[in-house]
Write a structure and sequence with these properties.
It is a single chain. This protein is an alpha+beta fold. Helix content is 38%, strand content 12%. The chain contains 16 helices and 10 strands. A 3-stranded antiparallel β-sheet has the order 1-2-5. A hairpin with a 5-residue loop joins strand 3 and strand 4. The longest helix has 20 residues.
């Protein structure tokens, strides 16, 4: 009976109890048949292994399964180029664009993306983010229910772009905290089959007709494509693992390791730079912005450690010729007793959040040293406060100020260049640069 069932799945034949006028079934691929048979085999084996055995043997033990080609896993995954995703996105219906865009930009699983609620919009290190803490699952009756994500590491916080954050917050307006961000045509959860049949496949067909799209991706391939875009941008694999919610780095390597061949030139350049002090800095390090973070490390004797005064200028430090009078409303944030104006409330809020994140550890040091909470609060961010116009010095900010993490250490040297005492441990802090507001 089980062998007949496997043969029917492979051939796409009707099941014995199917009505004869039922539309033809889709023939399953070998890997899918292996998965379904494996589940049934595990159930049967648990009956054999029960303390009071329910079966004498496992009837799945000698089933002949279709051959699973070693290349099938790779063939099943479809990686979209950025322009190919743009083609598909163009033809998606309006109610399908936002959930598909969210999956493409975050790498979420379908069950994670469609389970997002208004309360899941968060911030991490001053950046907009989404908290993944639930996903759709099937209960014992086959009904969709909200439950915990697939694994422990699937419960994660993922940073997103400001553009996606604006879209999601716009959808969240007027919703209760536990309302779904994405709903189907009837106002309930999106059914994956409905989305695929009525939204996804028609968009692929139209993209093929207009642009010549050859690939036939699944919705889940947006997750794979997201990972491939990160690899192409030279994002480290541990960061990709954490973003995708993989339980082990092995899963990430096994799934996307073959894409790393494209980074061979970067690997060789990094090794040459590490082995030869005169070698040029690899181009991908320069582009990443990491190069400047190491500039001051070899010159630690000239630096100081601990809590330093903030090496920045605020509006009150500007000269008269830099004073700008702004007649429009501004949003002022007080950062360490200094007022800084911003043109947008959300930008001001982002700056305040980032400032507090950057100074959290130093505030903890002050608290342990016995500083009062009032003194500590003065080092934090206050606001934003709306004002009808800005009358202070300097320009009104229209972007996020630049920041840099600076390492420092205290050391004392005698006239002959020898150390007079053991240097204190290396420490670091964020410094903010307020040179130009535009």
């Amino acid at each position: 009976m089980i062998q007949d069932w496997v043969n029917d799945l492979e051939a796409g034949r009707l099941a014995p109890l199917d009505p004869r006028d039922r539309k033809p079934r889709t023939a399953y691929k070998p890997k899918t048949i292996h998965n379904k048979h494996g589940l049934l085999s595990a159930i049967m084996q648990s009956a054999v292994d029960a303390e009071t055995s329910l079966r004498a043997s496992n009837p799945c033990a000698k089933t002949r399964l279709p051959r699973l080609d070693s290349t099938e896993d790779e063939e099943e995954i479809v990686f979209l180029e950025r322009e190919e995703w743009a083609w598909i996105y163009e033809f998606l219906r309006d109610d399908a664009k936002d959930p598909a865009e969210t999956i493409a930009e975050t790498g979420f699983r379908w069950g994670e993306a469609t389970a997002l609620q208004a309360r899941d919009l968060r911030r991490r290190n001053g950046r907009p983010a989404i908290r993944v803490q639930r996903a759709w699952k099937k209960d014992e009756d086959g009904k969709s229910v909200l439950g915990a994500p697939m694994t422990r590491k699937s419960r994660r916080t993922v940073v997103i772009t400001h553009r996606l954050d604006r879209m999601l917050r716009s959808r969240a307006k007027g919703l209760k905290q536990d309302d779904l961000l994405f709903t189907g045509p009837e106002g309930n959860k999106w059914d994956p089959g409905t989305f695929r049949r009525l939204r996804w496949l028609p968009a692929i067909e139209l993209a093929a007709e207009k642009y010549g799209l050859i690939k036939r991706p699944r919705i889940h391939d947006l997750r794979h494509s997201h990972a491939s875009w990160l690899i192409a941008a030279k994002v480290p694999q541990p960061a990709i693992q954490r973003r995708l919610g993989h339980e082990s780095i092995t899963t990430t390597v096994d799934t996307y390791g073959h894409l790393l061949d494209a980074l061979d030139d970067e690997v060789v350049a990094a090794v040459e730079w590490a082995m030869d002090p005169t070698a040029p800095l690899p181009g991908f390090l320069v582009q990443s912005g990491l190069a400047s973070s190491t500039d001051s490390l070899p010159q630690v004797p000239r630096q100081s450690s601990g809590l330093m005064d903030n090496p920045w200028k605020d509006a009150s430090d500007m000269t008269e010729d830099t004073v700008a009078q702004v007649d429009e409303p501004v949003f002022v944030v007080t950062l360490g007793d200094r007022e800084v104006p911003f043109v947008d409330r959300q930008l001001a809020r982002d700056v305040a959040d980032q400032w507090d994140d950057d100074h959290r550890e130093s505030c903890e040091v002050l608290r342990k040293d016995g500083w009062s909470e009032e003194e500590i609060d003065r080092r934090g961010a206050l606001g934003p406060q709306k004002r009808d116009r800005w009358t202070g010095g300097g320009s009104v900010w229209t972007r996020m100020p630049e920041r840099q993490f600076v390492y420092s250490v205290v050391a004392s040297y005698a006239a002959d260049g020898t150390l007079t005492y053991e240097p204190l441990p290396l420490s670091g802090r964020w410094t903010w640069h307020w040179r130009s507001a535009v």
